[in-house]
């Protein structure tokens, strides 16, 4: 086993040098120093311009803010017009096409959607798996259904024409389609304006318009044609000239761009601070006025409520303490302030009211004029006819009257015709309704009578059965009477049976008569009851089998 | 050039919810450069010495360096072992033969997934696709001996101080 010549731990440089053999274009040794200079705002950097002596003119690196604004110009070169053609997204036009602002003065720096700050945290499902930021102009792959930002997917596709997630082969023309559903969700996301200094927050779909047209902080191309740096729109007036020329700072004689002067004063200029004569703190010189007027705790100021009678004047920090609690004029002052606010509101309302009144008067005037004109017209067309006034019975329907009054119809004849037509249509409607109702009623009637008919038929059959029973009973009675006459037995068997059993009269008497009848007529069916030991069944039980054949 | 949001997010997540057995810490002065430590996977010659009471008497910890190129995530990160390791897919300079670091890279992959792949590679050496031919050869001829060597190397180089 040959001894391996591996680098020692913690000393990457030794190994890095040898690694360059096959990674000549991308070696760490060359990366690291590059990165140091390319990361001006991230991480503590040892070599900041404050410590280094000022280099003359263009050799000096511009301050961080300019680095930031110049960078995405490279980004703008990435053409995604091919997607715009295939996918046809609306939002892409916002980031690609409109590089001119409203006045056509100068191109606007494009929005880098990946760097946007969102107001609240965005759902993870709306993040592109490639750039890990909320989708911009999302595209979904048709065969596998994965979604990416169009820009991310196209860049990945240029390197390898497969889906970045499952490596399925993809074709730009055939397999990409716009992800419409999440489009709306993305449009609703609240986002901060990317311009430095602008705190505007809006829905994402409105951002492009705000940024390109209205935001005063949007970086636009410097008005000087020879300069290719970006500057906030509010500073880009042509009369101001190019603000990117280096001039020596008046305090520390360092070379500074005019556009970055404020930042330079506030952050890094060392010769710029002065001591405040009153409070002994060091203040940036050009902020001194502001400091004295608003901040300096030692400046003598009047009490806030001096308008309302408090005469206190003292250094600011004393006055502030005094204003808060003990000043007796505070209550009055507050009241007075409220009153002033109210007065302002009232005056504003008065102005609005008078304006509204004026408008109302004008409208009324126009209305009366129009009515006059119409009346005159009506008089001119037919002098014999009295001026038409919508009659009570005609103006019953407010709509029709309104349509006449609004002047949509020219003459009373037209109006009458219109009325007539309207009535006709109404009549037609009514006729239809009546027909429908008629049908409905007949149906209902039919249903009801059907039921009644059935009931009647049932009742009829019952009556028939009862009739049969009575005739049978009558027969039985007649027969028994004939017997009595023949046997000379006195007394009705029915009454004797009823008195002996004491039960329900009709049925028992019927069975009794059956037994009697059966004795005399053994071929009768009822005879079996008598002969067998079974208890006598009531007539109603054996309704189907018992009725005698008459 | 400012750091892309993706790198910031990935770094934040790596630090906030690290993968078990893997740590990746960015350099303060270059946020694209990471110091990585991977624990040898268990039941592999790189895991360290197992002890019955405490789980490991010592654990194999491998140091790597990771660099995110300018066009990351369109190009894969550059990764290299700093700790010497006896493995058929890692050469003597620490370079790693892993498909997702070369042709099979996809921009949807992340630092954490790549580091997990490397940890898996330690658990499953692939001598059929070697980067270190001599190691692969010994691995194929006598696997037991090769594993013993790997264990020995782990004890020699991958023991934490």
Structural features, described:
The complex is a heterodimer of chains A (550) and B (161). Chain A has 550 residues and is mainly alpha-helical. Chain A contains 19 helices and 13 strands. The radius of gyration of chain A is 53 Å and the shape is elongated. Chain B has 161 residues and is α+β, with helices and mostly antiparallel strands. Helices cover 30% and strands 19% of the residues of chain B. In chain B, the strands form two sheets. Chain B has a four-stranded antiparallel beta sheet. A two-stranded antiparallel ribbon of chain B has the order 3-4. In chain B, 43% of the residues are buried. The model of chain B has no long low-confidence stretch (mean pLDDT 88). The chains are: A mainly alpha (550), B alpha+beta (161). The A-B interface holds A 1-2, 4-7, 9-10, 12, 15, 18-19, 23, 26, 28, 31-32, 35-36, 38-39, 41-46, 68, 71, 114-115, 129-133, 152, 155-156, 159-160, 162, 164-165, 167 and B 1-6, 9-10, 28-33, 63, 65, 67, 69, 73-75, 78, 80-84, 92-95, 104, 106-108, 134, 138, 149. Chain B: Belongs to the ubiquitin-conjugating enzyme family. Chain B: This is E2 ubiquitin-conjugating enzyme.
Kindly summarize this structure in a few lines.
The complex is a heterodimer of chains A (550) and B (161). Chain A is mainly alpha-helical and 550 residues long. Helices cover 49% and strands 7% of the residues of chain A.
Rounded mean pLDDT score of chain B: 88
- How would you characterize the largest beta sheet of chain A? 3 strands, antiparallel
Individual helix count of chain A: 19
Fraction in helix of chain B = 25-40%
Q: List low-pLDDT spans of chain B.
A: none
Strand order of the largest sheet of chain B: 1-2-5-6
Assign an overall shape of chain A: elongated
Secondary-structure element order of chain B, N to C: HEEEEEEHHH
Q: What is the overall pLDDT average of chain A?
A: 70
- Overall structural class of chain A, as computed from helix and strand content, comes to mainly alpha
N-to-C CA distance of chain A: 129 Å
Count of individual helical segments of chain B: 4
Low-pLDDT runs of chain A: 1-105, 490-535, 540-545
Work out the oligomeric state of the chains in this entry. heterodimer
Largest sheet of chain B: 4 strands, antiparallel
Strand numbers in spatial order across the main sheet of chain A: 2-1-3
* Content-based structural category of chain B: alpha+beta
Portion of residues in beta strands of chain B equals: 15-25%
Family (chain B): Belongs to the ubiquitin-conjugating enzyme family.
EC number (chain B): 2.3.2.23
Keywords (chain B): ATP-binding, Nucleotide-binding, Transferase, Ubl conjugation pathway
Domain UBC core (chain B): 2-159
């Amino acid at each position: 086993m040959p001894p391996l010549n591996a680098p020692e731990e913690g000393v990457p440089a030794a190994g890095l040098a040898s690694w360059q053999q096959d990674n000549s274009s991308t070696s760490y040794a060359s990366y690291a120093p590059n990165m140091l200079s390319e990361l001006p705002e991230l991480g503590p950097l040892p070599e900041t311009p404050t410590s280094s002596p000022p280099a003359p003119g263009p050799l000096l690196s511009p301050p961080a803010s300019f680095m930031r604004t110049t960078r995405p110009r490279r980004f703008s070169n990435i053409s995604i017009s091919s997607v715009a053609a295939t996918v046809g997204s609306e939002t892409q036009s916002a980031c690609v096409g409109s590089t001119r602002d409203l006045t056509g003065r100068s191109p606007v720096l494009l929005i880098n959607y990946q760097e946007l700050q969102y107001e609240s945290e965005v759902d993870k499902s709306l993040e592109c798996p490639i750039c890990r930021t909320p989708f911009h102009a999302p595209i979904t792959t048709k065969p596998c259904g994965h979604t990416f930002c169009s820009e991310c997917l196209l860049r990945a596709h240029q390197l390898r024409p497969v889906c970045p997630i499952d490596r399925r082969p993809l074709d730009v023309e055939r397999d990409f389609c716009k992800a419409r559903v999440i489009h709306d969700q993305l449009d609703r996301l609240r986002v901060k304006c990317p311009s430095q200094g602008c705190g505007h927050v809006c829905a994402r779909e409105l951002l492009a318009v705000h940024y390109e047209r209205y935001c005063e902080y949007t970086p636009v191309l410097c008005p000087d044609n020879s300069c290719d740096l970006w500057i906030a729109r509010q500073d880009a007036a042509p009369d101001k000239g190019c603000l990117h020329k280096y001039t020596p700072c008046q305090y520390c004689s360092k070379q500074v761009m005019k556009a970055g002067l404020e930042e330079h004063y506030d952050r890094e200029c060392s010769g710029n601070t002065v001591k405040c004569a009153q409070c002994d703190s060091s203040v940036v010189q050009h902020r001194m006025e502001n400091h004295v007027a608003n901040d300096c705790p030692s400046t003598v100021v009047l009490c806030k409520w001096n308008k309302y009678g408090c005469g206190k004047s003292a250094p600011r920090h004393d006055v502030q303490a005094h204003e808060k609690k003990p000043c007796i004029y505070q209550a009055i002052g507050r009241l007075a302030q409220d009153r002033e606010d109210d007065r302002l509101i009232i005056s504003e309302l008065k102005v609005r009211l008078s304006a509204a009144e004026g408008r109302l008067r004008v409208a009324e005037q126009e209305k009366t004029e129009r009515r006059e004109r119409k009346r005159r017209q009506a008089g001119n067309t037919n002098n014999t006819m009295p001026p038409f006034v919508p009659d009570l019975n005609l103006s019953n329907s407010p709509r029709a009257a309104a349509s006449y009054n609004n002047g949509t119809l020219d003459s009373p004849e037209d109006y009458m015709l219109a009325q007539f037509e309207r009535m006709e249509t109404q009549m037609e409607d009514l006729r239809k309704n009546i027909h429908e109702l008629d049908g409905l009623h007949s149906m209902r009637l039919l249903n009801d009578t059907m039921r009644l008919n059935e009931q009647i038929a049932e009742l009829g059959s019952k009556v028939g059965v009862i009739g049969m029973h009575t005739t049978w009973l009558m027969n039985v009675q007649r027969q028994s009477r004939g017997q009595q006459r023949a046997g000379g037995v006195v007394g009705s068997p029915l009454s004797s049976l009823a008195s002996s059993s004491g039960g329900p009269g009709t049925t028992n008497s019927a069975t009794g008569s059956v037994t009697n009848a059966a004795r005399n007529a053994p071929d009768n069916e009822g005879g079996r009851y008598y002969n067998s030991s079974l208890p006598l069944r009531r007539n109603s039980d054996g309704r189907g089998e018992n009725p005698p054949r008459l | 050039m400012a750091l892309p949001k993706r790198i910031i997010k990935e770094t934040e997540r790596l630090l906030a919810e690290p993968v078990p057995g893997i740590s990746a810490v960015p350099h303060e002065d270059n946020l694209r450069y990471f110091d990585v430590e991977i624990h040898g996977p268990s039941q592999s010659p790189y895991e360290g010495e197992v002890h019955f009471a405490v789980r490991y008497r010592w654990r194999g910890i491998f140091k790597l360096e990771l660099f995110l190129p300018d066009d990351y995530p369109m190009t894969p990160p550059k990764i290299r072992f700093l700790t010497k390791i006896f493995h058929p897919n890692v050469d003597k300079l620490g370079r790693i033969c892993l498909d997702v670091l070369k042709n099979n890279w996809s921009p949807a992959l992340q630092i954490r997934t790549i580091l997990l792949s490397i940890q898996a590679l330690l658990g499953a050496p692939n001598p059929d696709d070697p980067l270190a031919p001599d190691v692969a050869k010994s691995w194929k001829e006598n696997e037991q001996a090769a594993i013993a060597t790997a264990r020995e190397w782990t004890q020699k180089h991958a023991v934490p101080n």
